[in-house]
Amino acid sequence: MNLAGFVPLSLCDFPGRVAAVVFTQGCNFRCPWCHNGHLLSLLPDPATRVEEARVMAVLSERRSRLGGVVVTGGEPTLQTDLSRFLLRLKMLGFAVKLDTNGSHPSVLRELLKNGLVDFIAMDIKAPWEKYALLAGVSCDENALRESVALIAASGLPHQFRTTRVDPLLSARDYGLLVSELPKGSPHAWQTFRPAYSRDPALRVAASVHA
C-alpha cells in the first residue's frame, strides 16, 4: 500500500469507536477546496511515506485499545492492493471504516461482497449539476450514482457527507444536494477550512467573506 500518513489514535473519525487512521497517497479528484493537497499525487513522497509494516506493527500492539481503523486519503479505491490491506486489518480483529469519493463503484462492490468494510463514508461534493466544479475534474456521474446506491443498499452503517464551500455553493445548491440523496441515509455537513484550500482564490474569498 502507498501510505502517506498514520494517526495511531482518533476519537472522532469512526463513529462509536476509538480508531486509528491510515491515509493513502493519491487522488483522482482535484477539488479546489481540498485541504490535503500533499495527498493528491499518485507518486510516493519520501518525506511523508509511511511503511505498511510499521503501521501493521503499531496496530498489532494496540489491538486491545482500538476498536477500528479508518482508511482514508487521498482516494483509497485507487490502491490496487486495497483488498489485501483491508483483509490484514480484519484478520487483526479491527472493524474497518472506508472514506471514499465514490468514483470506483466496482471496487466498492468487491469490498462489500468480501465483507472487508464495516462502515462507509462517501463525500458528496455538490448537487449533480455542479459536481465537476467542486471535484475539479470531469466526473463520471453514473459511477458516482452507482456508488451512492451501493452504499445505501449495503445494509452497513454509512454516511454521506458534504463540505459547505460557501464561495462555490449556494443555499439552493445545498437544498438540491440533500434532495438527491437516498431517503433514510445519514448525511453530515463538514466545515470548510479555507486556509488550506488548494485554490488560493478560495483562501482570499473566505477571508473577505469573514
Structure characterization notes:
With 210 residues, this protein is of the alpha/beta class. The protein contains 7 helices and 7 strands; from the N terminus they run ββαβαβαβααβαβα. The chain has a single domain, classed as TIM Barrel. It is globular and about 50 Å long.
**CATH level-two architecture:** Alpha-Beta Barrel
Mean pLDDT: 94
What is the percentage of strand-forming residues? 15-25%
Total beta-strand segments: 7
What is the terminal-to-terminal distance?
A: 40 Å
Q: How do the strands line up in the largest sheet?
A: 1-2-3-4-5-6-7
Could you spell the SSE succession in H and E letters?
EEHEHEHEHHEHEH
CATH C-level category: Alpha Beta
Number of helices: 7
What is the CATH T-level topology? TIM Barrel
Uncertain parts: none
- Percentage of residues in helical conformation: 25-40%
Mind telling me the CATH superfamily name? Aldolase class I
Task: Assign an overall shape.
Answer: globular
Number of domains: 1
What class, by secondary structure content? alpha/beta
Main sheet makeup: 7 strands, mixed
Concise synopsis of the structure shown:
By secondary structure, the chain is of the alpha/beta class.
Summary keywords:
TIM Barrel, single chain, seven-stranded mixed β-sheet, alpha/beta, 210 residues
Present the secondary structure layout:
Layout (H helix, E strand, L loop, with lengths): L2 E8 L8 E6 L27 H10 L6 E5 L9 H10 L3 E6 L4 H9 L5 E5 L7 H5 L5 H13 L4 E6 L7 H9 L7 E4 L9 H10 L1
Parallel strand pairs: 2-3, 3-4, 4-5, 5-6, 6-7
Antiparallel strand pairs: 1-2
Helix pairs in contact: 3-5
